[in-house]
Structures are given as structure tokens and as C-alpha cells.
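User: Okay, second chain of the day. Same drill as before: sequence in, C-alpha cells out.
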Amino acid sequence: MRESTTIPEFFFCSEVAGKLRRTEAAVRWLWQTGALKSRVVGGRRVSTAQDLADFFEVQR
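Assistant: Same drill. C-alpha cells below.
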């Protein structure tokens, strides 16, 4: 029997920028420096809801 998996919700650069209230350039910088985790899915860089939650937790 297959194990059920939860598919994470992905956010693209413009969506992450809206949630962080930053520019898309700022989000790309956060991704490049590793301050905000991301991954490439289907050729596009994305972050998950958990990545954003972890980012906010570190920024406290």
C-alpha cells in the first residue's frame, strides 16, 4: 500500500515578496544568501509555507 504524502504549498517569487512585504529583488537576494530556504521545482525557484514560517521564526 502507498504511503500518503502531503504536498507542500509552493510560493513563487512574487507571492513570497507579497507575503514578506519586500520587493522581488529582495526575495531573490534572500534566496541567494540562504537566509530564506528555496528549491527549484519545474525550473522555477520556490519556497514552501514551512520555509516562510522558519524564516519568520529566525527573524524574531
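The chain is about 45% helix and 15% strand.

User: Thanks, on to the next one.
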